[in-house]
Design brief:
Layout (H helix, E strand, L loop, with lengths): L1 H15 L7 H21 L5 H8 L3 H10 L9 E4 L2 E4 H5 L5 H16 L3 H12 L4 H8 L3 H19 L1
Antiparallel strand pairs: 1-2
Helix pairs in contact: 2-4, 3-4, 8-9
Length: 165
């Protein structure tokens, strides 16, 4: 009896071992898909479409896609790739080597400050600093004078500076 339990545990470990746990039903569907594709390619030289696979296996297209995705090899961003005889990690190739944490924190901070403004103040700041409009253009759009836009903008920026400090 103990041998059967141990054997079952070994089978489960081999079946379920991996960085991401995938259900047995998805693994079984993936195996069926691979077998049907292999047979069809040997017969016709072409792959079946997702819709054709779904029809043959009597499952949804989404289930086919999930099973196919689950079968893909995982790649680590720390994996070394060799280019021009030089080994680098994938993350080092896409990294800017800048302090992006500070940038993200600043962006969140500014967004929170803007969200705290009333609707008119938000419009002015967004039009001026995100849409690149002049004070005169903003004044025309809002039906106020350029001087009013200037005063409101100055007041908003002073309040934002106080909140940050």
């Amino acid at each position: 009896m103990q041998f059967r339990i141990l054997f079952g545990e070994i089978k489960r470990f081999i079946r379920d071992d991996g960085p991401i746990k995938i259900s047995r039903s998805i693994k079984e569907l993936s195996t069926k898909i691979n077998e049907i594709q292999r047979q069809h390619i040997n017969k016709t030289g072409e792959e079946l479409k997702i819709s054709e696979l779904a029809e043959k296996l009597n499952v949804s297209k989404e289930e086919i896609i999930v099973a196919l995705d689950a079968n893909q090899r995982l790649e680590s961003i720390d994996e070394e790739i060799y280019e021009d005889g030089k080994g680098e990690t994938k993350i080092s190739k896409i990294s800017t080597n800048k302090d992006e944490t500070g940038f993200v924190i600043n962006k969140i901070c500014v967004q929170e400050l803007i969200n705290a403004l009333n609707q008119r103040e938000k419009e002015i700041i967004i039009l001026r600093y995100y849409k690149g409009k002049t004070q005169s253009e903003v004044a025309k759009m809002l039906g106020i004078t350029q001087v009013q836009v200037s005063r409101i903008e100055k007041k908003i920026l002073q309040e934002m500076r106080k909140k940050i400090a």
